[in-house]
Amino acid sequence: MPPPPTCPTPDCDAVLWKDTTHTNTDWDNWRWWCGRCGKQWYPTAEQLQDYRYARPGRPHAPAHRDPRAGRR
Asked: Average pLDDT, stretch 25-54?
């Protein structure tokens, strides 16, 4: 995924967050939210496509392996 955009407010340059806490009835279920100025924005069509799915690739290895489990 590309890095999130910065806040479009002229006096704020904070990185935006993908907010899903209060958008359960909205289309695509998220908005951009700025933690510094507290404003929200609708994502563009390009952002919806870019941030909708995770980047394809191989699955990550588990962070910790249970030492009691035998090796295969």
From this structure: 81
Instruction: Return the number of other C-beta atoms located less than 10 Å from residue 21's C-beta.
Output: 8
Q: Which stretches of the chain are DSSP H helices?
A: 45-52
- Parse the chain into domains and list their residue ranges: 17-52
Task: Kindly state the tokens that stand for 17.
Answer: 């967050």
Q: Helix (H, G, I), strand (E, B), or coil: what is residue 56?
A: coil
In sequence order, what are the beta bridge partners of 19?
A: 31
Phi, psi of 33 (to 5 degrees): -130, 135
> Full-prediction pTM beyond 0.90?
no
Per-position b or e across 55-71, b if 16+ CB within 10 A of its CB: eeeeeeeeeeeeeeeee
